[in-house]
Amino acid sequence: QTGMFTYDPGFTSTASCESKITYIDGDEGVLLYRGYPIEQLAEGGDFMETCYLLLNGELPTPAQKAEFDYRISRHTMVHEQMARFYQGFRRDAHPMAVMVACIGALSAFYHDSIDITDPVQRQVATVRIIAKIPTIAAMAYKYNIGQPFMFPKNDLDYTSNFLRMCFGVPCEEYKVNPVLSRALDRIFILHADHEQNASTSTVRLAGSSGANPFACIAAGIACLWGPAHGGANEAALKMLTEIGHVDNIPKFIAKAKDKNDPFRLMGFGHRVYKNYDPRAKLMAKTCHEVLGELGIKDDPLLDVAVELERIALHDDYFIEKKLYPNIDFYSGITLKAMGFPVSMFTVLFALARTVGWIAQWKEMIEDPHQKIGRPRQLYTGEPCRQYVKISSRG
Ligand code: SDX
């Protein structure tokens, strides 16, 4: 039942709800979207097909896919007033801060016009958020680097459009590299949904009160930003850069094992996967494909990552704690090679996860038994006691 919370002795309340969208077997390292293995979806179709599947429960027919692609592409522009929001930020504002603000601002444009109790209008909100998130993300990047915003182009596929809005300039035609576009599209598929992770639970809890779906997605972006969650891809790359050379790995492995040291190996471990994150394997494969396409032979960060993984997978501490690389371990190296700055890594995670968030929001809103989420607590504070006037206190 949505919103039912259970407690474990660690006082870690885990939201439990029923969902038909994503299945994870953490011990076996299995991830299914609507019953389809992530490995097959990542190799078989494109991100738009995965979006359709997550939202509707079935893979689209060719006609349904074409219609979905068309509808999404016709909503990729944002209101011209949205462009003025960016002017209020410093140029060096973290793009995740910009994303939280601008996605939240979208609710101001649609709040009064979308009745979420109407299925047709829910569909409108769903299409608009999926369509506009790449444009808003690309605008955050362009604002950071002081380049003009690029309008979306309707004759490009979703991911190629995003690459052009990021790396294209008005002065010349942008030539999409199909290998890189396909690789990024696969990375979006890998990040699309992941059951009741922290940010999805945030979106569900916010949505359970009937809040505007755009405001709920903004809440999910805020939660994803944390280094223990979606911010780990940025943190993992910073960690690999700090390690710098394979000779320094043992020192960091020792830090990760030291209970008195808050350092953790970023991109390692997972609350659910106690086996290899299936997405990490596909991420590593994509990383090698991208570096190969770009002719990058000796990437010191990749050397450190591969050796760190090799050592950790044979280390008794990590084996006993069941710590394996997760999706964030190789994604940073790949995105950096593609030309994205570290500050954009979690933005790309949020871009891809938006379809998972809105699909889970839609499933919750359409549940006739849905109630507002209301976590309880185990109270560990003072027993009831009498008030003492300040004049009588010591
Ligand atoms: C994502 O939930 C999702 O599905 C999230 C996500 C998604 O798609 O939405 O998969 C995306 O957030 C992936 C995780 C990205 N975060 C990181 O890579 C940050 C580094 N990882 C850790 O912070 C940690 O592994 C977590 C936060 C991911 C999980 O933390 P937990 O639940 O505390 O880990 P655990 O209970 O499995 O830990 C078991 C033990 C603990 O030691 P003890 O208290 O038992 O002595 O392993 C230790 C932890 O201290 N440990 C680590 C470690 N991760 C856990 N020690 C060193 N390095 C690590 N990375």
Automatic annotation (TrEMBL):
Pathway: Carbohydrate metabolism; tricarboxylic acid cycle; isocitrate from oxaloacetate: step 1/2. PROSITE patterns: CITRATE_SYNTHASE (PS00480). GO terms for biological process: tricarboxylic acid cycle. GO terms for cellular component: cytoplasm. One of its GO terms (molecular function) is citrate synthase activity. InterPro entries: Citrate_synth-like_lrg_a-sub (IPR016142), Citrate_synth-like_sm_a-sub (IPR016143), Citrate_synthase (IPR002020), Citrate_synthase_AS (IPR019810), Citrate_synthase_bac-typ (IPR024176), Citrate_synthase_sf (IPR036969), Citrate_synthase_typ-I (IPR010953). SUPFAM superfamilies: Citrate synthase (SSF48256). Keywords: Transferase, Tricarboxylic acid cycle. The active site is at residues 270, 328. Belongs to the citrate synthase family. This is Citrate synthase. The lineage of its organism: Bacteria, Pseudomonadati, Pseudomonadota, Alphaproteobacteria, Hyphomicrobiales.
